[in-house]
Amino acid sequence: MSVGTEETAGPETAEVPAYRVFRVRVTRVARLGPSFTRVTFTGDDLSLFADHGLDQRINLVFPLPERGYPHFREGDDWYRRWRTLPPEDRNPIRTYTAGAVRHGAGELDIDFVLHGATGPASRWALAARPGDPLVVVGPDVRHRGPAGGREWAPPRDATRLLLAGDETAVPAIAAIAESLPAHVYAEIILEVPDPADTRVLLVPPGVRVTWLARDGAGDHGERLFAAVREAAARLAPAGRQAAGPPPAVAGPAGGPRGASTTAQERAGEPEDDDLWEIPDPGAAAQGGFYAWLAGEAGVVKRLRRHLVGELGVDRRTVAFMGYWRLGRPGGD
Asked: For the ranges 52-61, 109-118, 203-212, 241-250, which has the lowest average pLDDT?
């Protein structure tokens, strides 16, 4: 997984990998709204699942229809072995945000976005029933080094925050919003498919949450873009873009991919296939401002372009993550 900000490596790091396979089963399914369902899992070894919170990414390995997991193998090299399988024998893998972890009960919550039987994750979640098995690849509590998989790392002097995303970013942004300290001012903007998808977030007084429902009207991200423009005009210190190299590019579900040297990235504009940049948390916030954007890649790129290219916000204070891409086959 990508480099994170957890505690310094200790002697157990080489012995216990950062991530391991957990075999779990469904214990409860709760509908949160027309587009969301929360699945609670239990497992014999979930006491070893590290609860890093915030936007912690994990991998879900879904069963093959009618076959389950005939070729999936556990172990530290599970991914390498998975890649050697013929495509028809590979269990689908998707990246999700870990929800609440209850070690005492041996439970893990994961929120799923539902959009019909259009992909393996949504199809599985729609049919999930108590007792159904699933394979989760998540952080191991025994690992003492950096586990990675978390991207929320604003500079220490960031006091004016903007977090925005579509429905796929709701679990991560909701967890971040509810963890914010009382001394910061933050605007949270979330676009969801249906008005009934909104929920109450338990945030400090200085956090303003805005839910935007497409409700069948307008393109994906249209309302989000308009709202972010308005919020950025209030929050962002425009016109002071700093020079310097672009942030490192890190993969959403794998290790660091390294910064490329394409003309687009040299100009501060990411390639479409590398829409995942996280600023160095050691960098100073520009006028106290920090933005965190996640969701559909085209919308996120447009938002980032407005902040950096049009408003002149320092690109090193804008984190952005393309969780998925509209129209690309094989999505959830």
From this structure: 241-250
Q: CB neighbours (10 Å) of residue 254?
A: 13
pTM of the complete model: 0.85
For residues 240 and 286, the answer to whether their CB atoms sit within 8 Å is yes
d(CA 77, CA 60): 16
Give me the sign of the Cα torsion angle 12, 107, 60, 326.
Answer: negative
How far apart CA 278 and CA 155 sit, in angstroms, is 11
CA gap 169, 269 in Å, rounded: 22
Alpha-carbon gap, residue 238 to 217, rounded angstroms: 31
CB count in 10 Å sphere of residue 216: 7
- Distance, in Å, from the CA atom of 157 to the CA atom of 166, rounded to the nearest integer, reads 27
SS (H, E, C) the chain: CCCCCCCCCCCCCCCCCCEEEEEEEEEEEEEEECCEEEEEEECCCHHHECCCCCCCEEEEECCECCCECCCCCCCCCHHHHHHCCCHHHCCCEEEEECCCEECCCCEEEEEEECCCCCCHHHHHHHHCCCCCEEEEEEEECCCCCCCCCCCCCCCCCCCEEEEEECHHHHHHHHHHHHHCCCCCEEEEEEEECCHHHCCCCCCCCCEEEEEEECCCCCCCCHHHHHHHHHHHHHHCCCCCCCCCCCCCEECCCCCECCCCCCHHHHCCCCCHHHCEECCCCCCCCECCEEEEEEEEHHHHHHHHHHHHHHCCCCHHHEEEEEEECCCCCCCC
For 207-256, the pLDDT digits (tens) are: 999 999 999 998 999 999 999 999 999 999 855 444 333 343 333 333 32
CA distance 152 to 157: 14
d(CA 285, CA 155): 6
